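Comment thread on ticket #2218

A.B. wrote:
> Attaching the input chain for the structure job we discussed in standup.
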Amino acid sequence: MSEGAPENEPETQGNGSESREPIDSELFDAVRAFVFEAREHYIEYRETGKYMSKIHDLPKYDEFDSGFPHITITNAFNSDVPDYKGALGAKEGEFTPIAFGGWESFKRLLELADNHEGLKRSFLIDPAKVEDEFGERFWHFEVTRLPLAVFDRLMHVYGDEFTEGNLRHVYCQLELGVLGEDLPIVLAVPILLTKFEPEVFAIDTNVAILRMSKEQHLARISRWNRLGSSVNEVVAHAATHMLIFVNWTMPNLKGSPSPPYKQLDWYPVEEIDRFFDALRVVTGIETGYADAFIIPERQEWAYDFRRDLPAVVEGASARRYPSNFDNFGWNREREPLTEEQLVEVSEIYRGLGGRDSIGLAARRLSAGMLRETEDDAVLDLLIGLEAVLSDQDKGELTFKLALRTAAVLGQLPTYNPGIIFGQVKRLYAYRSAVAHGQSKKVGKLRTIISGDEEIPAISLATEFLREVIRQLVKRPDLTSPGDIDSRLILQSLGASSSDADPNDSAEIT
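C.D. wrote:
> Ran it. Output below, let me know if you need it in another format.
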């Protein structure tokens, strides 16, 4: 998988094959003949009034009162959606009343497939190993996979009055998915239980947020409900927008029995997680993702289609969201994030990629916010503070963390440095008690008294780490703990940073 040159706007839908000529004219002629013959036989059979195959496992789009999508599979036996592809088979049977085994167009396809290396690369079986009737049935299925997909798509989109131009358009999309080498793609990651005011917003070059259409939701639903995955399907579908990465390509993996895009590490996980890190830094909201999938760029190509829905390629499942989402989290109302907030998310996203220590702190923030227990979370959050505020000298670590946190946040009018100093020391005492298994002490330190208010320690730790990261990203002059000491602490005492001895590498202790 590779990243290409940037474009002005992400595009996930289009008609890129409208004006394209077939790659293989001989294959096109063979598929064309099969499809037109299939239409003739289908209309003829339909007019007999006999039973027609129907699609029963249809996805249905709905929305909760909260506004989040809810996708279900309706196993309705009274479906009125024809199963055009399923009605055809090499031999006539109970569920395949139309047999194409004797068609001249089918025989031509068999002959062509035997000597077509491009087609054979897309097959899941080796034609040379077909030895019995069972293997022959699978071989016929592979040979007709492309023409049946073309026929099915045409009937769902245009009905039985589809034209030569319609056929060419659909064929070129599916042909590129079979014979193409490097395929243009958009990588998509639905953003769970999070609303956004803008329909589309650019986060960085080739990275954007885009509202998901009803059709995209229906197209991407897993046929098998992610067998073996711990992801809650209701949560996985509850996304109004998706994070997209545009201008990428991938080698054609058609025919691969175990395509790598089924695994999360095939995707740009570092950039995906960095976006969610930035989102948490700016907003403090609970958010996350459960899967990543592929959209053919501008719908130029397809491996397959679901009826009249846009082409997608089912990808990888991943449980990267808070566990409480499983507890009817989709019913909770969420305020949509504004364009102003997304401007800052974009700024933080870019900033997190520039300094390792800040990136580490943001990852620890996300880890803490995804933990199931407060005791585990506080370890991550305080490690995050250490990543950006501690130095090589570990002496008086608690004092230095408290002092530097107070110095950074003290630049904001809403924080009192003296109060912050004391609260961070108490947070570090909480962290130390957890790390050393002092359960009695932990219980007393889970809350912090602030005036008349009793505040959960974990809330303060999350808030402090978020705000420290925000301030350090916005202050490029504060690139190290030493900068905080000289530019904030010493200056607050009336000293100039130029007064510091440049040969003295020791930090304030």
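A.B. wrote:
> Thanks. Noting for the ticket: The chain has 16 helices and 13 strands.
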